[in-house]
Design brief:
Chain C: It comes from Lachancea fermentati. Chain C: It is an enzyme of class 3 (hydrolase). The structure holds 3 protein chains of 3 kinds. By secondary structure, chain A is of the alpha+beta class. Chain A has one domain: 4-Layer Sandwich (Glutamine Phosphoribosylpyrophosphate, subunit 1, domain 1), CATH 3.60.20. Chain A is built from 4 helices and 12 strands, in the order ββββββααββββααββ. In chain A, α3 runs antiparallel to α4. The radius of gyration of chain A is 16 Å and the shape is globular. By secondary structure, chain B is α+β, with helices and mostly antiparallel strands. Chain B is about 35% helix and about 35% strand. The radius of gyration of chain B is 16 Å and the shape is globular. Chain C is built from 5 helices and 14 strands. In chain C, strands 1, 6, 7, 8, 9 and 10 form a 6-stranded antiparallel sheet that branches. Chain C has a 5-stranded antiparallel sheet with strand order 11-2-3-12-13, with helices on one face. Chain C has a single domain, classed as Glutamine Phosphoribosylpyrophosphate, subunit 1, domain 1. The longest helix of chain C has 22 residues. The chains are: A alpha+beta, B alpha+beta, C alpha+beta. At the A-C interface, α2, α3, α4 and β12 of A face α1, β5, α2 and β14 of C.
Chain lengths: ~200, ~200, ~260
């Protein structure tokens, strides 16, 4: 067994556009070189906040459940959905709580603040260091490739439909250079009053 | 090198598990049952560290049975699999983790649909049409990828399973003493005699 | 702090036992400096954060506010510098509320070093603490194991050698505010250009006796990216879609109700 964060493989990426955000993931779950499932989604949503989790699959599931629990309690206490900015702090403190025994995940938060209408994305390392970016965040086993793709393809102020093409092409071409990512992809395009989820046509090798 | 395989088809789930128990260079048993019935419509097969696996399986079995006695309600396969995953995810964080991989096959009587879950010792859970643990997957997934259709019936699935087992007998370096095959459908769990 | 949870420690020990790889946490490769001058103190930092050889963020903020007039520059494990300054910052505010006094830099220093010493270097925060309080302007540095230094100028992080070279050659007693800012920024630039772990921009914070602290985010930006000459926008419909679904996310409705107030 090698590095826990690259046993199962997988990537997540998020981008900001004009009054919209996009978040995308691949669908592979593997055990080293063996592909086990092509329906393992790494993006979850809590109200209008979206969370992508790449890394060790067991921790992806565990954390998705932890945040479901925490956001549900938040909703009961506050009588409103959690906002992306608040959720980012929640993710950070939840991960840092396990500073000396971390969950092996690379979370990505994406959403639009329902009050201000401001698009928001953030990334984290495995112990909760927040990386607030105004353009894009990447995470997972093909993060190096994604950095390269996003850095060159991304431009600010894209409309939802153009943002979809840009994030999809960035993801698709990145995972094709990673043996343990790919096997399908899901993209969420988030605008203030509509969320569209699309499954992409991808290579199956 | 235990073999456990599972196939989910239109209205049933089939779990197959090798009958051999080996320790070092010896085969100790040739009619082992590596499955436990969790409830009327849920069956679990398991492999892993010899002590851990049975201990874990029976702990799960007992707790799921306790639940149905207390609540007077059968746990759905999905709920049962979530419980098992949670136990394994907790275990991997403990001083001595359970080294157990399981398959959960079940028929959801409320939704009237069969389900198959693969869960490994880390707590990685996936819902799959066909699944295996250990080396069995390397030999059989290509066959299953090619021949599997979601609308197969039980007898067609058994035929496909037979192909897989024959492949394993041909290619695996060790005699695993055949497989024990159990089917879960709307009528519950039943064993397929002399498969 | 109630204490950090070690729940997963055993598990990870087990998970990583058969490898020599270590999960990569974001670290602020970093150059940070602090310079004292007549009537105040200034701290500065670069804005590059790294994960191994990858630049994770090109414009991150390494200057943390612990109290209105006590600021802290952090190097080392990014999450640790962030969390430790946040934690001690909170306790400092509680302490100042309790004592009805302005927080002192030595108090921050003591709380930070005791926390870091308790964790025996495992909380990887290397800090330069500076600020003004009723006793004057102060400048300190702290290492992850809990040791502290006092001085007229300090530098820390992977670019500390480059920065210190500048500080050693240019610092003198009796600097003015402007001279101190320029010296600090020059020292950071030495790190930006000569250290691989540091880069991008210079952040500065000036704390002058009797004045509010001045946070000068991106005080220097010597690495502005050239705008793209061409667009890589794809024609709509380039990407193949298998299926599409509009998610029904619960809508938040607002309603204004007129309430008649009785006189």
């Amino acid at each position: 067994m090698s590095d826990p964060s690259s046993i199962n493989g997988g990537v997540v990426v998020a981008m900001v556009g004009k009054d919209c955000v996009a978040i995308a993931c691949d669908l592979r779950l593997g055990s080293q070189s063996l592909g086990v499932a092509n329906n393992f989604e790494k993006i979850f949503h809590y109200g209008h906040v979206f969370l992508g989790l790449s890394g060790l699959a067991t921790d992806v599931t565990t954390l998705s459940e932890v945040f479901r629990y925490k956001t549900n309690l938040y909703k009961l206490k506050e009588e409103r959905h959690i906002e992306p900015e608040t959720f980012t702090q929640l993710v950070s403190s939840t991960l840092y709580e396990k500073r000396f025994g971390p969950y092996f995940t690379g979370p990505v938060v994406a959403g639009i603040n329902s009050k201000t209408g401001k698009p928001y994305i953030a990334g984290f390392d495995l112990i909760g260091c927040i990386d607030e970016a105004k353009d894009f965040v990447v995470s997972g086993t093909a993060s190096d490739q994604l950095f390269g793709m996003c850095e060159s393809l991304y431009e600010p102020g894209l409309e939802p439909e153009d943002l979809f093409e840009t994030i999809s092409q960035a993801l698709l071409n990145a995972v094709d250079r990673d043996a343990i990512s790919g096997w399908g992809a899901a993209v969420y395009i988030i605008t203030k009053d509509k969320v569209v989820k699309r499954y992409l046509k991808t290579r199956q090798d | 090198m235990d073999i456990i395989l599972g196939i989910r088809v239109k209205d049933s789930v089939i779990l197959a598990s090798s009958k051999a128990v080996t320790r070092g260079i010896s085969v100790l048993k040739a009619d082992d049952d590596k499955t436990r019935v969790l409830s009327d419509h849920t069956l679990m097969s398991f492999t892993g560290e010899p002590g851990d696996s049975v201990q874990f399986a029976e702990y799960i079995q007992a707790n799921i049975q306790l639940y149905s006695i207390r609540e007077n309600c059968e746990l759905s396969p999905h709920a049962a699999s979530s419980f098992i995953r949670q136990e394994l995810a907790k275990s991997i964080r403990s001083r001595k983790p359970f080294q157990v991989n399981v398959l959960v096959g079940g028929y959801d009587t409320r939704k009237e649909s069969p389900h198959l879950y693969q869960i490994d010792y880390l707590g990685t859970k996936v819902d799959l049409p066909y699944a295996a643990h250990g080396y069995a997957g390397f030999y059989t997934f290509s066959l299953l990828d090619h021949h599997y259709r979601p609308d197969m019936n039980t007898s067609e699935a058994l035929k496909l399973l037979k192909m897989c087992i024959e492949e394993l007998e041909r290619r695996m370096p060790m005699d695993f003493k055949g497989v024990l095959v159990k089917v879960v459908d709307k009528d519950g769990v039943r064993e397929i005699e002399d498969f | 702090m109630a204490g950090l949870s070690f729940d997963n420690y055993q598990r990870n020990q087990y998970l990583t036992c058969s490898t020599n790889t270590k999960a990569q946490a974001t670290s602020t490769g970093t150059t940070i400096v602090g310079v004292k001058y007549d009537g105040g103190v200034v701290i500065a930092a670069d804005t590059r954060s790294t994960q191994g050889p990858i630049v994770a963020n090109k414009n991150c903020a390494k200057l943390h506010k612990m109290a209105p007039k006590i600021w802290c520059a952090g190097a080392g494990t990014a999450a640790d510098t962030e969390e430790v300054t946040k934690l001690i910052g909170s306790n400092l505010e509680l302490h100042s509320l309790y004592t009805s006094r302005e927080p002192r830099v030595v108090a921050a220093l003591q709380m930070l070093k005791q926390h870091l010493f308790k964790y025996q270097g495992h909380v990887g925060a290397y800090l330069i603490v500076a600020g003004v309080d009723p006793t004057g302007a102060h400048l300190f540095s702290i290492h992850a194991h809990g040791s502290t230094d006092v001085g007229y100028y300090q530098s820390l992080g992977s670019g500390s050698l480059a920065a210190m070279a500048v500080l050693e050659s240019k610092w003198k007693q009796g600097l003015t505010r402007e001279e101190a800012i320029e010296l600090a920024a020059d020292a950071i630039e030495a790190g930006i250009w000569n250290d691989l772990g540091s880069g991008s921009n210079v952040d500065v914070c000036v704390m002058e006796i009797g004045k509010d602290a001045q946070y000068l985010r991106n005080y220097r930006t010597p690495n502005v990216r050239e705008p793209k000459q061409q667009s890589y926008k794809f024609a709509r419909g380039t990407t193949g879609i298998l299926s599409e679904r509009v998610l029904d996310i619960c809508q938040v409705e607002e309603q204004t109700v007129d309430i008649e107030l009785e006189a």
